[in-house]
Design a protein that fits this description.
Blueprint (H helix, E strand, L loop, with lengths): L1 H17 L28 H14 L8 E6 L2 E8 L2 H12 L6 E8 L5
Parallel strand pairs: 2-3
Antiparallel strand pairs: 1-2
Amino acid sequence: MKAFDVAGLLFVIGCVTLTPGVHAQTANAMPMASSPAANSGKATPTDKQLARDVRKALSKAPNFNVSNVFVKARAGVITLSGSVSDGHQIQQASEVTMGVPGVTSVSNHLTIYTKGY
């Protein structure tokens, strides 16, 4: 039974000595300010609204199936993921997305899906 007590004590000592120091934040510490986005005087839409706007624009594009396309927005950068039926739709998705107000760039990760898989 003493062997278990010694092993437990060694484990606790090892954990205490191997953990890095932890420092608490003081109550009067200032939060880190995020840098303001470059703005041309117009209010930029929220990420959620921008993603909705892009999805809506894609759904209105001729011969474009948006059902397997996922849209994420972050500070004007749109990430497209998912799959479409042909390579033309991948290019079309980028072009339509860049035409949406508030979009600064597009990261297109769309792939072509093969029926039956």
